[in-house]
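Quick one, probably user error.
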């Protein structure tokens, strides 16, 4: 175990945050926003984030504060006023109705995640699985559908708000194993959430154990999406079962699997504490790889210097810069989104300031309905300024890495706001028959909505 003294995890929600030592340092108008906005969007933080990551002398502009605490402008002004008045009135029935209506307007299922990505097996929906790209299956274990702290931008916010029609999870791995046995084209399984690292090691092991079956030898790579490296590094250092977790990682690697922790680092402040660096070192010592990814976010990391520090420090510690995403079209999108042109400028400026070891990163990338769309430049071609685009992943494998162009729009913030360049009526992938899901050698997979 590391030298850090074991600290008990202490979370805070909308009610208990008022008992946190730092609550009195928050101005009244921000306290009101916490009370109102968290009726719609989930709120959860912890004592480590409050004590070690937030600079309380800089609130509300401190990026980690904005990453954890809601602001009133994360909601439409009229929605905020209506909700505030209903909260004050005490009318729980009308408040619940308004909350549901506001959430339904916030695009709770971006990119068809629950309408076109959920597979069937023998005609029955397989719970807790998404299969958008042929080689990769996402798995949502029910025990991992929360986090050590919630990010205010999170595109999976519907998982945490307590509405059954928005929640998505599997109680066990039986359905996953059965599905994978029938799909030998799948090489990668991403365990996601929420955050799988919220689970005890013994629970996580029960979900992972089936992936070591000889019948699933085609599963080469196990990915675990996690924010714990930044929000609760104690999980890998001083928690009671931290050493057991690392032994599990070693076992997966020894079994011949490539194990990758997809580390969600949104700001370099999350990598500055010694315990966070120690957590990263301990994970890497097991033979696992840590890949760093984050969306580019207004108010949080819309500064090339932040990305430079994040990537260079991460590389020095052994992590691999992986993705800069564009903020998805869901939740408090209007608060965090940037014009695509600005996101590209941030990426390019940061990219040119780092060495080749950090240039493994790809971006800015939009996880849109057709696939992961990379903004590859803003050239002028035949006198027309355009976005140069390509798919890094796609529902149809045959469109990956085929360059295409969209008319330059300085105000566009998402893929569906773009139109083809050069007077074309449609993008090339819209002109050909498209199945509503991934395909294998031209054969569409059986997906909900297909």
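Nope, works fine. Designed sequence:
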């Amino acid at each position: 175990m590391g030298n850090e003294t074991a600290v008990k995890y202490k979370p805070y929600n909308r009610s208990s945050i008022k008992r946190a030592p730092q609550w009195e340092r928050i101005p009244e108008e921000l306290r009101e926003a916490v009370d109102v906005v968290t009726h719609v969007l989930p709120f959860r933080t912890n004592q480590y984030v409050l004590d070690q990551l937030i600079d309380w002398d800089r609130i509300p502009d401190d990026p980690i504060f904005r990453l954890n605490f809601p602001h009133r402008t994360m909601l439409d002004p009229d929605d905020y006023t209506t909700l505030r008045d209903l909260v004050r009135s005490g009318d729980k029935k009308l408040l619940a109705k308004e909350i549901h209506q506001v959430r339904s307007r916030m695009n709770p299922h971006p990119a068809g995640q629950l309408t076109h990505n959920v597979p069937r097996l023998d005609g029955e929906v397989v719970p807790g699985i998404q299969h958008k790209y042929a080689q990769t299956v996402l798995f949502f274990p029910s025990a991992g559908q929360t986090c050590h702290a919630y990010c205010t931008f999170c595109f999976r916010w519907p998982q945490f708000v307590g509405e059954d029609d928005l929640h998505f999870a599997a109680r066990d791995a039986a359905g996953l194993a059965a599905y994978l046995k029938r799909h030998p084209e799948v090489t990668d399984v991403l365990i996601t959430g929420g955050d799988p690292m919220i689970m005890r090691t013994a629970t996580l092991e029960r979900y992972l154990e089936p992936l070591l079956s000889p019948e699933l030898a085609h599963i080469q790579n196990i990915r675990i999406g996690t924010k714990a490296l930044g929000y609760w590094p104690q999980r890998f250092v001083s928690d009671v079962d931290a050493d057991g977790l690392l032994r599990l990682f070693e076992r997966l690697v020894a079994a011949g699997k490539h194990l990758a922790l997809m580390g969600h680092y949104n700001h370099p402040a999350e990598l500055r504490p010694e315990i966070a660096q120690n957590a990263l070192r301990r994970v890497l010592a097991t033979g696992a790889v840590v890949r760093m990814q984050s969306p580019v976010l207004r108010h949080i990391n819309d500064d090339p210097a932040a990305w430079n520090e994040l990537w260079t420090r991460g590389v020095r510690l052994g992590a691999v810069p992986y993705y800069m995403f564009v903020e998805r079209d869901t939740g408090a999108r209007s608060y965090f989104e940037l014009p695509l042109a600005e996101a590209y400028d941030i990426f390019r400026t940061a990219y040119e300031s780092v060495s080749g070891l950090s240039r493994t990163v790809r971006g800015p990338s939009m996880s849109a309905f057709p696939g992961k769309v990379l903004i590859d430049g803003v050239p002028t071609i035949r006198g027309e300024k355009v976005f140069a685009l390509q798919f890094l992943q796609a529902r149809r494998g045959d469109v990956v890495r085929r360059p295409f162009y969209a008319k330059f729009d300085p105000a566009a913030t998402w893929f569906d706001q773009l139109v083809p360049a050069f007077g074309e009526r449609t993008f090339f992938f819209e002109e050909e028959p498209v199945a509503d899901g991934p395909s294998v050698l031209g054969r569409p997979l059986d997906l909900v909505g297909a």
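The chain has a mean pLDDT of 91.
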